[in-house]
Structures are given as C-alpha cells and as structure tokens.
Amino acid sequence: MFELTKPQKQIQKAAKSFAKGEFDKELAQDMDKKHEFPFKIWTKASDLGFVGIHFAEKHSGGGMGLLENTLIAEEFCRRDSTIGMALTNAGFAAECLVRFADEELQNRFLPPVAEGQMLSGGAFTEPGKGTDISNLKTSAVRQNNGWVLNGTKVCLVNGGVAGFYVVLCCTDPDVGATKGSSMFLVETDRSGLTIKNSGDKLGARMIASAEITFEDVSVPTTHLIGKQGRGYDQTQQFYTECRLQIAAQSLGIALGAYDRATEYVKGREQFGKKIAQFQITRHKFADMATKIEMARLLTYKTAWDFNKERKSAHAAAMAKIVSARAAYEVADEAIQLHGGYGYMTEYDVERFYRDAKIAELFCGNKETLKDIIGKAAIGKIR
Amino acid sequence: MEILQFTEKHHNFRRRLRAFLAESVIPHVDQWEKEKIEPKQIWYKMGQNGFLCTEIGPEYGGIGGDFLYTVIIAEEMAATNHTGLAVGLHSDVVVPYINSFGNAEQKQKYLPGCVSGDIITAVAMTEPNAGSDLAGMTTTAVEEGDEVVINGSKTFISNGIISDLVVIAAKDPAVENPYQAISLYLVEDGTKGFERGRHLEKMGWWSQDTAELFFIKCRIPVANRLGDKGTGFLMLMQKLQQERLVTSIGAVTAAEKILEWALEYCKSSPDGAKPVSKYQANQFTLVEMATEVKIGRTFMEKLVADHMEGKDIVIETSMAKYWTTAMAKRIANRSLDFFGDAGILETCPVARAFRDVRVMSIFAGTNEIMKSIAGKFMGL
User: Fold this and answer.
1) Does the CB of B326 have a partner CB in chain A at under 8 Å?
2) Are residues A200 and A296 part of one domain?
3) Is a pLDDT exceeding 80 seen at residue B29?
4) Is A207 a member of any domain?
C-alpha cells in the first residue's frame, strides 16, 4: 500500500524533470507581478500529457486517476507554487464534464482542454455567498430549443481566458437549489455574457479571477451537464475533487518552501556558524518535516481511494485542511528562517507563503470543511 | 484605572492627527502602494503640522512631548491600513540617535529639519551577511585626520531611497573586539561615494522604500561621528529597546484594526444571509482572537508606562516584541479565513494587512533573537 506503482513513479519523475527544465524563477516572479497566465509553459505541459491526465484517452487524456494528477500537482507546485497552481487549474471544472456530461459534450470540449488549446473555468460562487450554493440567484429558464441564463457569479476561475465555463444555475426555484439546480456549459463567446476581471490578488496571481454576468444568455439543451436538477450534488462532488487537488498543490507548496529553507540555512552563517547548526533551527525542520509527512499521507491516501472509486467528501476535506495548513505553516517558517531575505520577492518564499494562504481560502475555508467532516464524524442525531 | 494617562492635550493631538490623516494620507494610500513609494511632500506636510519627532524640544522646533505622543501616532497610522509612511522609524528610532548622542552642533544642524519634515532619516545597520548577527558587520570606517572614509554595503534599509540623512554603523578595522569597533556616523544625501542600490521588491509595505546602500570610499567629516569612537554597539543596544517597543505598539494596533474589520465582516448580513458571527465555532474563534488582542494591548501599555518611568525592561520588551508581532500575524491569518474566497482579492483590506504584518516578526531583531535576548537576561 505504501508504494507508488512503477507507472506512477515514472509520472512523478517526468513531472519533476519537466518543472525543473521549464519553470523559470525570474519569469515566475514577473508573471506573478503582472498577474499573467503561463501560456507557453501550459502549451508544453499539455503536449506532454500533464494536463488532463485524469481524462479518458479517447478525450486526449492520460486515462489515469486522481492519484496521478496529485503527483503532477505536487511536483509542479514544489518547483514553483504559482506556475504549478496555474497549470493544474488549466482544466478547472472540466472534471464536471468527465464525470457527468454525455459523450457528445465530452467529445467536443475535453480534447481541446487536454491538448492545451483551451482553458476551462467554473462559475459556481455568487456574490457574498462563498461556497454556499444552496440559495442561487443565477437562473436558467427553458425556452424553445434551449435554456436562457440570467445572473451574476464571482470568483470565476480562469475568468476571461477560458474557452468555456461550467455554470451552476437554479432551474426550478420551487423545489430549492439543492434539488432544483442544474449545470451548464457556456462558451465564452455567447452573446449576453460579460466578464469583468476582479483585480489584483493576494496570491495564485497567475490564475485570473473575475466576475461574470449573464443577460439572457442562450445555450442549447445539449449544453446541460449531467441531469437536470442534479446540479447541486454534481457541484459538491466536483468540490470534493477540487479540494483533493488543492491538497496536492499545498503539499507541493510546503515541499517547495521546505527545499528553499533547507538550502538557505545550510549556506547562511551567523554568529560564526551555519544557521542549520542551531538546535532551534533543527527543531523547526523537525516540525516542518512532520507536518509535510502528515499532509502527504492524507493526500495520497485520499487520492488512492479516489482511484479505487471510493470518493469521500470528508476525506478530501481533511486532506485539504491538513495539507493547506502545512503549506501555510511551512512557508511561514521558511520566511522566518530567511530573515529579511524571506520578505523579499527575490527569495520566492514570500510568494509560496501567499500562494499557500490562497490554498487555505479557496474552495471552502476551514469552517466549511469542518462542517462536512463533522457531519460525517458524528452522523445524524435522532 | 487606565494604564496610560492621556491628558486633554493628548486627546486634542490625536483628533488633529486623525483629521489630517483622513484628509492627506488615506485618500492617497492606494496610489502610493502602486507607486511603491510615498512622495516627500507628505513627510513635509506631517512635519509642518507637528506630527514628526514629537519628543524633540521647542529649541529645535518640536513640542517636547512625552512618549504617549508616539503611542498616539503609531495607533493612528495603523488605522490608515498601510505601513509606507514610516514616521515611527524616523521619529522614534533614527532621530533619537541624534537627539541622545549628538553634540550641540550636530543637533542644531539636523534636528530642526527632522522636525519640520525637510530631512527624512534612515538607519543603516543590516548588511548582506550581517542580519541578526549585528557584530558581524564588515562595513569599515577609517578615521584619517579630520575625515572618515567609509567602505561597505548595507541592505534592507527602510527609507533607503527617500532619506536625506543616514545614521550608519561601521567598524574600525584596526579594533579586534567587534563590540568596541563600531561607531555611528551621519552621512548626508549627495555625499560623494554614498550610492543607493536597488529599491527592493517585497511582500508588503509597498508604499515604503526598502533599499540597498553602498559606501565606496565615502568621505565625511569626522565631526559627523555620533558620540565617542567605538561606542556604536552600546548606542545601538540602548536604542533598540525603544525600536522594539514601538514595533509592539504597531503590532498591537494593527491587530486591533484587523480584528475590527473581521468583526464588521462577520456581523454583516449581505442579502439577508445569516451572519458569519452567528455560527458557534466562529464566535469561539472571534472571542479567542479578541482575547489575544486584549492581552497584547495590556502588556504593551504596561511596558509603555514602565518605559516612560525609565525602568529596565529589556526582558519584557523582547518578550513583547516577539509575542505581539506573532499575535498580529495570527490575527491577520485567522481574520482572512473568515473572508474565504473574498480574502483572495486585494480589495479585501485584510489581504494587505496580511502581507504587511508578516515582516514585523523579522525586523527590529527577529523573534528568534528576541527569545535569545530574553533568555540571556533571564540567566538561562
């Protein structure tokens, strides 16, 4: 159980060597400052099969599972947190097509994502609501041969750069959002669709965040993803996968910060000896290594279960809490160990720290996740 | 009973300062953050309105105020949600070196400008290879007759670009004991051989300029030495206490402001939704945060009172510096969690605060150094 398979080890090695060869520190710092998506690296990563490795082979994917995707996210984010997060979010919400869409929609939209010709995005969150999707204002109404969408979504991942978005809408207000919502695929060039960039971000700056408005946007009936009225459940299942991916990204961020701290303390001398020789430094590393190991075990175990079709929302929530916390705390300690240099852009750990915080905030904060875990842990009270 | 006894005079000063900041600082903060520096003009305006160097006496144009004015300024500056305008560094850290250790001539020459805002100051201690280990600095100062020749490089210097006058620490290479080798010198902008290096990019404090400084055969008059030759290390140790206390004031007030934003957000109810603050777990977290902030406030105020009485509080100041700055970081981190997705955007006020407070655990002596100092003085 505690060993990756040979193909998995090969994927891990390939991802590591790709990241080492292609991710450039100065370029990353520059794109971070300018809030740019790493288009060139993304194209290469897609060519080599790192994007959509968990899509079916007939859809240009790798035909593998989330554990393999986890290994890629880890290696990419370890080398560079911001580039890694952007690349592993290139096919954001395309998982909704993989899991729920019919053949026709999959055949049309998954290959361009896996081949690096199109980014995908997701529009779930509504203004002021966060991850609470139980009271949707965005509506889709059945008309003629299709659906007409109206409403506003925020926190649109890859907003403005994606070719299509997965949009969650209320389709039956009478039965409430949990039973009356549905998921649609909306191409970015549909008329009536307006996207406004949400401005500068604290971290994960290579991933665009935007607000999207639908004003009588028409889509054909074939653009319904999955079943009508199942949008809420489908979104929760997608969130679960998304949280596992964030756990994987976080594990990489933690490791990347750890690597940089290790290199620094072994090279830096103060008071006549290497910082690595002080007992307190060694204990800090002991704490960091322990946190990383906990994050790795929970993340791998959850991903391994997913590969075996055992998908647990609370396991993914636990993995995300522990792994994102590890990323934050390790990056924080890495800054501290760097002293003044740690606060400077040049030394990268400040970027890892900001990116780690985004991992904690995105797709459900601790409180939301604990509600999910608590429900599973205690069960219903009679 | 209040720990700090503010008088009506103090309250008036605070009201005047608050109005000034609302009019002349807060509307410009976003632009300064973008430009990565604040204009000299705002320093001048601060000076003209009596908000710089409040401890300096009327003989140099100041008001000769007590340390409570420093507390007021630190508190009101924190409320502007930016840390660029580093008046605390100028008024409470750098200028006191001149005020305490300068001779009559030096004070007459520089203090009026420091008070009026014509002279912005910086202090240059840290070097690329001497951060926590201050005694390990390698910048040299060789006195030759009436002149001193300075060679070396400094880094992470706050106000590094904008400053008109720099207090620099440098070593006499002929003296072996590092603690007796350091002297402090005043170097003016424009002096030949004094060059500014890179304006360093950093996680936060964007409207404040942090830079490298280079001294290449920089010649200054020996009359620009502060105090006796070789007493630099002692002077630094003596003044670092106030710098660390000022850092604690900044940390506590920043934490208070961040908590205020978090509470406001958590109590709000957009579109009639149940406020975040109505969930039990969030209530407990918010209560814990408020408790930490109160403990920090009480500890800090007690130290301010002790400092004003001239008590020896080296252990407590070290403790306060480490604890309050770590606390401010915790409060920023936990506050941001409440905002969730909204906290990802820079439009969330806590996002900037989150970036800004992180450096407080590092500057003015890292928190590890604080624990080492406290441990040493506790006889450990």
Assistant:
1) no
2) no
3) yes
4) yes
